[in-house]
Inverse folding.
């Protein structure tokens, strides 16, 4: 689409037709930092840089971006007086507060300061006014006090010339004003002192200036007094003085002035006018053009106030008023024109149809047999000649349709169906013929789309209704493309395509770029593109791309309101209130590249990214809300540049975002992304995608590969440990089972075997009771021992006895039973409550056996009368001391039994400690420490 806000457009009359020069002015209201523009520069990317007295500005064709020197306490540094684009792409800026290098990529300012031993002149030494590059690539900079030569790459000062004090103070420090190349490749300084202009050549070795007229005789005559427009640019009168001109890549011109930034470009006769006709129409400001006809050397225009004709040869303009021939209040409202084979024109106006001789301007009523009265009374709204030479005419006020056959001179009248006739609706406003020779009619009062079948001479109606999202309420214009489609201008809906074979409607409205749904006329050019006249510009629709281009006053049209458009071969005509233009559609088919696109800002979590744009960014996982701002450099049509983007990583498809210049992504998951952007071509297609940025959002540490690998290793080790623990548990259970089995076999089984043997032996002497009684006593002892052993096994495997409290209760009970039977006193020293510490079954068994062995030794060997048992818990360590007052023994004397050795081994097995203390005649003490 082509649309700008234009302040004014100035036409220039050249030769027989006018060439317009469009003029656009930008001021603070449009985003400039100041109306005082001092210089303009075009950079390598196509951006326009504008220097003002209040900062630096960049323009991309859509908006201005302002740049100011950061950290300056004085506004002088932002008063830019001259600019120069250096070979490395930086900008050199001459300002009232110093000489600056500006990086176009990082937008950083670097200040170069002139220093000499004159503090009182420091401010004036750094007030720069002009810049220039010489043939050697050196940078020349002129200030209020002198001229300097610098290395353009490093910014180092090579040579400096300072004016004498008398000159400085007499002339109020007004020294270097302009720089210009000299004939020998050096530089000439234009300075002003002694109340006159001076052209001087600096001699740095002698710190003096030589008049240019001495070095280069006649040089002063070639010095340009004023800035002249570039060749090919003819400026209208009344513009302010321009300080500089520049031509951009789209062949338009820019001018710097104290009244703003000016934009000029010739219209290249895109929309041409006939000057005499334009002057005539402008005097009739209220005249609206509704139709046109080019017949021979005359152009005929149907308007709401008569029939205007223009002679292309003599350039004479005239007007024909039907009211001079016919009596009717609306006769001068001309609606349609048609040229007949006899050379006469048939005119449809507010009082019906009449003929007109274009040479004599004689007119009269059309004499046809059987014509209805409305033919000479009501509006002649439309005329259409079909492929068979039949002329179809609509009759206003709902009076139906007329068909005229010039070959037979016969007229056929189709009365509307509402009055008992054949034509289904009131009267047609638009007529078109399809490829099969059938005619289609649209009306102004709704009701549907009417089709006339030529073979059957019958009408049918196609209704749309709500299923299509619109009603065929008002169709003022219609064209057929010869490919099975009708194109309709439908009120409030827009441009509608009707597929004749499939009976399907498709609406092309604002979502495709249509600026106004009030369509007055349609016309198809030779290339198959459809032109629409609307109340907001002339539209062109390309059926191939299904996009609209909009042409407005800024493009050379006389007005944004276009009342009609019509095709005449390779030319087209269009009209608006008070003016008429003609143009070649092929002119607008010139291939133009898509504008280049650039990222201008990246916001991460709402904060602008200060890193240079254009490299692969690495962001943290919490930096996953990103906004891109971008632009396309099109200084002529930039406000309507369309964009589409693609973010590879969350979807590969391109998304059309219209004229938006930013796109946001929220809560992006970790991963690698590729952001691409492209701008639309002027013809509606898309340019080559620009790869703008690759960026990566790192995953959180708990989702990083190393963490996942570590966790996998930990889980694997945990699983292995769990597996080993389970195996160990199973082995322990199996071991317990084996021990229970062994105990049952060794103790219970042996005891039962002994009982069996004793019972057999007791049965050998049944006649001796005393003999059997001794065996019965032995059997009773064996049974009691087996019962005790079995009780011990059951107690050990019961999980309710896992805690240390149950174990100690069991031990003390066993001690009490054993010592009481031996008439030995027992003293117990134990805490009232014990912590809920659990002891494994096997450990519990070993401790019980060790304690049982200790009690057995006391009863059998100690000869004691009392036993003192002390139990205590330190943390999870069980400490038990068993002391008797028996006869004791020498611990250094070897023993023949294995009891003590077995006791020590049982404690060592569980990492415990076993101590025994004893002396002859002093008793024995056993101390156990079990973790």
């Amino acid at each position: 689409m082509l649309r700008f806000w234009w302040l004014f457009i100035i036409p220039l009359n050249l030769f027989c037709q006018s060439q317009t020069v469009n003029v656009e002015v930008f001021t603070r209201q449009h985003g400039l930092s100041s109306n005082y523009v001092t210089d303009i520069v075009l950079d390598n990317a196509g951006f326009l840089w504008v220097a003002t007295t209040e900062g630096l500005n960049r323009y991309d064709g859509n908006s201005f971006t302002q740049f100011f020197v950061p950290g300056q306490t004085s506004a002088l540094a932002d008063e830019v007086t001259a600019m120069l684009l250096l070979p490395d792409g930086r900008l050199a800026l001459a300002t009232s507060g110093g000489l600056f290098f500006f990086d176009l990529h990082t937008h950083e300012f670097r200040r170069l300061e002139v220093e000499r031993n004159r503090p009182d002149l420091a401010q004036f030494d750094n007030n720069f006014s002009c810049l220039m590059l010489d043939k050697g690539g050196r940078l020349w900079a002129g200030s209020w006090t002198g001229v300097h030569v610098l290395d353009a790459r490093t910014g180092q000062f090579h040579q400096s010339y300072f004016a004498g004090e008398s000159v400085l103070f007499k002339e109020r420090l007004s020294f270097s004003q302009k720089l210009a190349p000299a004939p020998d490749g050096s530089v000439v300084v234009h300075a002003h002192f002694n109340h006159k202009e001076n052209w001087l050549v600096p001699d740095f070795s002698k710190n003096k200036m030589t008049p240019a007229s001495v070095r280069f005789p006649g040089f002063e005559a070639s010095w340009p007094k004023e800035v002249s427009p570039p060749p090919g640019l003819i400026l209208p009168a009344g513009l302010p003085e321009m300080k500089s001109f520049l031509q951009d890549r789209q062949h338009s011109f820019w001018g710097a002035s104290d009244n703003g930034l000016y934009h000029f470009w010739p219209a290249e006769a895109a929309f041409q006018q006939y000057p005499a006709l334009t002057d005539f129409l402008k005097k009739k400001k209220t005249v609206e053009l509704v139709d046109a006809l080019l017949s021979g050397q005359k152009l005929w225009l149907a308007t709401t106030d008569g029939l205007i004709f223009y002679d292309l040869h003599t350039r004479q303009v005239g007007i024909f008023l039907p009211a001079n021939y016919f009596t009717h209040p609306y006769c001068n409202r001309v609606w349609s024109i048609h040229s007949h084979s006899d050379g006469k024109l048939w005119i449809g106006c507010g009082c019906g149809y009449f003929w007109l001789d274009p040479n004599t301007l004689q007119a009269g009523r059309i004499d046809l047999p059987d014509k209805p009265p409305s033919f000479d009374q009501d509006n002649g709204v439309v005329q259409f000649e079909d492929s068979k030479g039949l002329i179809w005419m609509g009759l206003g006020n709902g009076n139906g349709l007329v068909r005229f056959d010039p070959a037979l001179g016969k007229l056929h009248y189709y009365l509307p169906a509402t009055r008992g006739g054949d034509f289904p609706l009131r009267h047609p406003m638009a007529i078109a013929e399809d490829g099969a020779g059938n005619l289609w009619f649209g009306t102004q009062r709704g009701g549907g789309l009417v089709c006339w079948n030529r073979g059957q001479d019958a009408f049918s109606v196609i209704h749309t209704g709500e299923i299509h999202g619109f009603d065929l309420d008002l169709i003022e214009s219609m064209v057929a493309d010869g490919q099975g489609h009708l194109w309709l201008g439908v009120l409030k809906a827009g441009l509608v395509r009707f597929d004749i074979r499939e009976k399907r409607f498709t609406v092309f409205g604002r979502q495709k770029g249509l600026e106004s749904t009030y369509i007055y006329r349609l016309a198809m050019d030779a290339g198959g593109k459809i032109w629409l006249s609307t109340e907001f510009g002339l539209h062109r629709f390309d059926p191939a791309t299904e996009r609209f281009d909009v042409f407005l006053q800024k493009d050379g049209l006389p007005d944004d309101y276009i009342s009609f458009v019509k095709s005449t071969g390779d030319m087209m005509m269009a009209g608006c209130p008070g003016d008429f233009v003609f143009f070649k559609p092929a002119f607008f088919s010139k291939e133009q590249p898509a504008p280049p696109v650039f990222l201008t800002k990246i916001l991460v979590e709402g904060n602008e990214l200060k890193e240079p744009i254009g490299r692969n960014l690495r962001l943290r996982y919490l930096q996953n809300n990103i906004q891109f701002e971008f632009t396309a450099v099109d200084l002529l049509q930039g406000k309507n540049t369309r964009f589409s983007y693609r973010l590879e990583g969350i979807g590969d498809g391109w998304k059309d975002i219209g004229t938006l210049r930013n796109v946001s992504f929220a809560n992006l998951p970790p991963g690698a992304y590729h952001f691409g952007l492209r701008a639309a071509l002027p013809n509606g297609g898309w340019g080559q995608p620009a790869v703008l940025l690759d960026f990566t959002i790192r995953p959180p540490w708990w989702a990083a590969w190393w963490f996942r690998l570590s966790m996998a290793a930990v889980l694997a080790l945990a699983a292995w440990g769990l597996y080993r623990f389970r195996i160990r548990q199973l082995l322990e259970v199996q071991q317990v089972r084996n021990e229970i089995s062994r105990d049952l076999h060794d103790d219970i089984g042996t005891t039962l075997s002994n009982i069996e043997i004793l019972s057999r032996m007791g049965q050998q002497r049944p006649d001796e009771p005393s003999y059997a009684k001794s065996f019965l006593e032995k059997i009773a002892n064996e049974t009691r021992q087996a019962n005790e052993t079995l009780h011990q096994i059951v107690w050990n495997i019961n999980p309710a006895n896992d805690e240390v409290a149950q174990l100690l209760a069991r031990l003390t009970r066993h001690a009490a039973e054993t010592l009481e039977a031996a008439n030995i006193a027992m003293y117990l020293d134990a805490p009232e409550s014990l912590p809920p510490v659990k002891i494994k079954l096997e450990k519990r068994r070993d401790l019980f056996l060790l304690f049982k062995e200790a009690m057995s030794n006391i009863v059998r060997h100690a000869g004691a009368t009392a036993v003192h048992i002390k139990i205590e818990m330190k943390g999870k360590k069980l400490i038990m001391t068993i002391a008797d007052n028996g006869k004791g023994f020498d611990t250094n004397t070897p023993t023949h039994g294995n009891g003590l050795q077995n006791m020590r081994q049982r404690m060592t097995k569980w990492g415990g400690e076993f101590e025994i203390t004893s002396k002859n005649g002093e008793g024995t003490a056993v101390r156990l420490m079990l973790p």
